[in-house]
Amino acid sequence: MEDVSLAIGSDHRGIKLKKYIYNYVAPNTDEEPTKFNISVLIDVGAYDDKSVDYPDIVSEVANNMEHQTHGILVCGSGFGVTIAANRYPHIRAANCRTVKDAVMARKHNNINVLCLGADFVKITDAKDIVKAFFNTKFEGGRHEKRLGKLRNV
């Protein structure tokens, strides 16, 4: 099983969903393992409901993605963090609202950053979307060729 590291962040509108996801993947005690073989878990904020601009949070996650394998970003719609994250060349981000979105984004696009819209994703669905993000493997093949073309854009 591969060693996984995660940077997670949200703006003020996504803080409730981010906290839920963080608590889901993090162990309750030092004796419990993290879910999905996560060895490093970094929360870059926001930490309260004071207004914060999503590009600033995306920048923090993107900087951490130089060393982490996965990222999760949350804002109100999921669109803003997705657009901002995809401006970084080492990030492949997708806004996923369903498990199928997450599965297809991993299988075909090998996303390394899951983006969620707190106004659209129910907390009860978030757990399954996160599971799909970590448990779905990239198919490679014809998709690898297409990702290679993106590197030249």
Polypeptide structure, described:
This protein is α/β, with parallel strands linked by helices and 153 residues long. The protein has one domain (4-151): Ribose 5-phosphate Isomerase B, Chain: A, CATH 3.40.1400. The chain has 6 helices and 5 strands. Strand 4 (93-95), helix 4 (99-109) and strand 5 (113-117) form a beta-alpha-beta unit. The model has no long low-confidence stretch (mean pLDDT 92).
Distance between the termini: 32 Å
The tally of strands reads: 5
The tally of helices reads 6
Task: Please trace the helix and strand order, writing H or E for each element.
Answer: EHEHEHEHEHH
**What integer value in Å does the Rg equal?**
15 Å
Shape: globular
Do you know the CATH topology? Ribose 5-phosphate Isomerase B, Chain: A
What would you say the CATH architecture is? 3-Layer(aba) Sandwich
Side by side, the strands of the main sheet go 2-1-3-5-4
Work out the strand percent. 15-25%
- The number of distinct structural domains comes to 1
SSE-based structural type = alpha/beta
Overall average residue pLDDT: 92
Oligomer type: single chain
Give the name of the CATH superfamily.
Sugar-phosphate isomerase, RpiB/LacA/LacB
Short description:
The chain has a single domain, classed as 3-Layer(aba) Sandwich (Ribose 5-phosphate Isomerase B, Chain: A). It is 41% helix and 18% strand. It contains 6 helices and 5 strands.
Task: Explain the layout of strands and helices.
Layout: E1 4-10, H1 15-25, E2 38-43, H2 54-64, E3 70-75, H3 79-85, E4 93-95, H4 99-109, E5 113-117, H5 123-135, H6 142-151
Parallel strand pairs: 1-2, 1-3, 3-5, 4-5
Helix pairs in contact: 1-5, 2-3, 4-5
